[in-house]
Design goal:
Length: 454
């Protein structure tokens, strides 16, 4: 956002993925001028919002990085992983980089106005508000000039769905003149939380019946922790001794309380530990569950794998035995990471199931599996073709993104409605359908609006 010829503010600096990376080299290059950028605001720590920060620093950015307290705890973990992938794995270089990040971080509490010192006095103020997407996520309010007549500009970041596990829900802005709004799921509606929980439980039952593994490609931060929270509750509520499978080939039996949930991602394990430390930012339901003696993110059936040797051992064991299990592994869109090795080993076996619980960007292996798997198709992984015989399912309700109805509520349930809305962060169809829905909403209320789909 440009304020004058010498001062601009950058909101997020994310990595392009899938088809979005076309025209952006490897998706990580800084392809915009940074000479006037005085500060960066991080709305949340997903890779598509912070993945190019290592390149931004390497390009010479010297300003502060503003974020919320939970994001300040999570961001170094995410940026360490991005640095290893993009810049260097040298330990000394990495430590210098992490020290630089720590020096640049400026923590802003929710719901408090702040006047950045890097900008002329009175030019603008900024405020971060709860977005309900992952812990620490925020939308950004920019107030220009003097109140109450100054213009108010809002950058949504990613808005979360209400009633998400662990998270306090997003709150609509008190007013906005111009809103830059995400549109990831602007063309659809999610399943309700209870229905998606039932479907998740049904897929676990399927694993017990099929004597196979449920593979869940999941993003390391946000989705993984919400899944663990839901799985703990499903196992807790449905753990009656009579709910068991038939006798397995080795003579043993697997019931709900003994169903292993394998978290095979060192990065996700680090984020999960950080989430446990961030309990003050959990919602009331999660805090009460913890106070009752439950361990939503560290329950007995949870097995965390860190070393590559443990990963290989479990992969071989699950591939050879008929023992049901749930495996959560990154990356969320199957572009790399340990989930790819599981898919290579298990996609061709109908005993196993793959469950998608998040958005799969076109051009990624996850999107191809999701689209062609139910038709008995195939996918290329590491340039090798793999036929898909495993069961493929998707539960849209576990998306951390708001759906169309949620986005309409976010726009309309605050104070003064925005007169201009710019839709970003979505495929063309999602933008078009959300734009049409916004137009109908405004017409019904007799309000003027300009909806732009860049």
């Amino acid at each position: 956002m440009h304020f004058d010829e010498n001062h601009s503010l950058l909101v997020d600096c994310g990595l392009f993925q899938g088809d979005d990376a076309q025209g952006h080299g490897d998706g990580a290059a800084i392809d915009f001028p940074i000479d006037t950028v005085k500060a960066l605001i991080v709305t949340h720590v997903h890779i598509d919002h912070i993945g190019r920060i290592p390149q931004l620093l390497a390009a010479g950015f010297k300003g502060p990085i503003y974020c919320t307290p939970p994001s300040a705890r999570l961001l170094p973990i995410a940026l360490e992983d991005a640095f290893r992938l993009q810049i260097s794995r040298d330990r000394d270089t990495l430590q210098r980089y992490l020290q630089l990040i720590a020096q640049r971080l400026v923590v802003l509490d929710y719901d408090h106005w702040h006047s950045p010192a890097e900008f002329p006095p009175g030019q603008f103020r900024l405020r971060l508000q709860r977005a309900g997407h992952i812990l620490g996520s925020a939308y950004v309010e920019i107030a220009l000039g003097a109140e109450p007549d100054g213009q108010r500009i809002l950058f949504s970041g990613d808005i979360g769905a209400p009633h998400a596990p662990l998270l306090m829900p997003p709150r609509s802005p008190e007013r906005a003149d111009i809103m830059v709004l995400e549109s990831t799921y602007g063309d659809r509606l999610h399943e309700g939380r209870e229905h998606r929980r039932e479907r998740l439980a049904a897929l676990i039952e399927q694993a017990l019946d099929d004597q196979g593994t449920v593979l869940i490609p999941a993003f390391s931060v946000g989705r993984t922790q919400e899944l663990l929270y839901e799985l703990e509750d499903i196992i807790h509520q449905a753990g009656a001794p009579e709910r068991v499978t038939d006798t397995l080939p080795d003579g043993s039996r697997v019931d709900w309380p003994r169903l292993p949930v394998i978290l095979d991602s060192p990065l996700a394990s680090r984020f999960t530990q950080a989430y446990r430390e961030l309990q003050p930012w959990w919602n009331e339901e999660a805090r009460l569950r913890q106070q009752a003696g439950r361990k939503p993110l560290a329950f007995e059936q949870l097995i965390k794998l860190d070393s590559h040797a443990d990963h290989q051992r479990i992969l071989a064991h699950l591939g050879k035995t008929a023992r049901p299990a749930i495996v959560i592994a990154g990356a969320g869109m199957c572009t790399g990471g340990r989930i790819v090795e599981y898919l290579k080993a298990m996609l061709g076996d109908p005993r196993h199931n793959v469950l998608f619980v998040g958005y799969q960007s076109p051009g990624t292996p996850g999107h191809d599996i999701q689209r062609y798997g139910p038709k008995g198709g195939y996918v290329y992984l590491d340039r090798q073709r793999f036929d898909i015989r495993a069961g493929i399912a998707s539960i849209g309700g576990y998306s951390a993104h708001a759906d169309q109805a949620d986005l309409l509520r976010f726009v309309s349930e605050g104070g003064a409605w925005p007169r201009e809305i710019r839709l970003v962060h979505g495929e063309e169809q999602a933008k078009r359908q959300l734009a049409a829905a916004l137009g109908r909403l405004y017409r019904e209320q007799g309000r003027p609006v300009e909806v732009v789909t860049p």
